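tokens incoming
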């Protein structure tokens, strides 16, 4: 019997069992299905895939930072020229297996620097995207860093860029509870993203920022989540945070699920014709 099955079979796992099971669980692509029912979030006023579908059919599309291709696959069938990029090689292989049968090509690339680090340099153009200029009608991006000037370059005149980003205060309470400084990108927000995009020539069509509540029902879900998002707490290892994690576990046991704030924003813009 696998550790996963053992974990789900336990009626009331304690702290040690929850942490050990989370440590043993693999994570790949962008698949959080193992946290179904254990990590939940209130709905946002916008839905990324609905916004992509609203734009309608296009002849050519690029998905930046596709992860394992899980999200992009939901809008298949694709246009005749659909590409996806991914900077993490293991995920690129997963994405290729998932997306190529659906008609999308996956390209391994060097990831762009984080946007919060390039707020004052919106014209930074390296690393360049491996596509010719004016190659796409639509570029989409869910939670991936990007270089505004490169997105602008690969779009045809009249082409659109749609991105949903995690804001800088995302899950910052987890850092507080673990006794760590909040992420250095805490200032990253809708206003900064809009400023970057306008600086390189985009016209903003829509902008919206929202906050939701994410609820963790056990400490194992928190450990699994932090392993999957290393930018939240660099070098996270449950062994090094055993005492604060136990305090979180005790808090959940005494007061119920832990609620933290989730920060998102959506921007849609167009390259002038």
């Amino acid at each position: 019997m696998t550790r996963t099955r053992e974990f789900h079979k336990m009626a009331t796992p304690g702290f040690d069992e929850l942490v050990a099971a989370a440590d043993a669980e693999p994570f790949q692509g962008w698949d959080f299905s193992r946290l179904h029912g254990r990590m939940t979030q209130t709905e946002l006023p916008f839905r990324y895939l609905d916004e992509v579908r609203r734009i309608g059919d296009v002849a050519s599309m690029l998905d930046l930072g596709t992860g394992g291709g899980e999200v992009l696959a939901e809008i298949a069938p694709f246009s005749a020229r659909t590409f996806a990029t991914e900077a993490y090689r293991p995920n690129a292989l997963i994405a290729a297996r998932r997306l190529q049968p659906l008609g999308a090509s996956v390209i391994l690339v060097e990831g762009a620097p984080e946007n919060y680090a390039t707020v004052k340099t919106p014209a930074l153009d390296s690393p360049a995207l491996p596509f010719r200029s004016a190659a796409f009608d639509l570029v989409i991006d869910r939670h991936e860093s990007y270089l505004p000037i490169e997105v602008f370059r690969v779009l045809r005149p009249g082409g659109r860029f749609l991105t949903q980003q995690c804001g800088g205060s995302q899950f910052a309470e987890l850092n507080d509870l673990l006794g760590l400084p909040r992420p250095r990108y805490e200032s990253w927000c809708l206003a900064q993203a809009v400023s970057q995009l306008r600086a390189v020539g985009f016209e903003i069509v829509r902008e919206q920022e929202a906050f939701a509540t994410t609820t963790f029902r056990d400490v194992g879900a928190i450990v699994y989540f932090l392993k999957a998002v290393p930018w939240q707490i660099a070098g996270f290892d449950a062994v090094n945070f055993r005492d604060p994690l136990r305090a979180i576990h005790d808090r959940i046991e005494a007061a119920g699920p832990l609620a933290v704030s989730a920060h998102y924003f959506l921007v849609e813009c167009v390259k002038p014709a």
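note: The chain has nine helices and eight strands.
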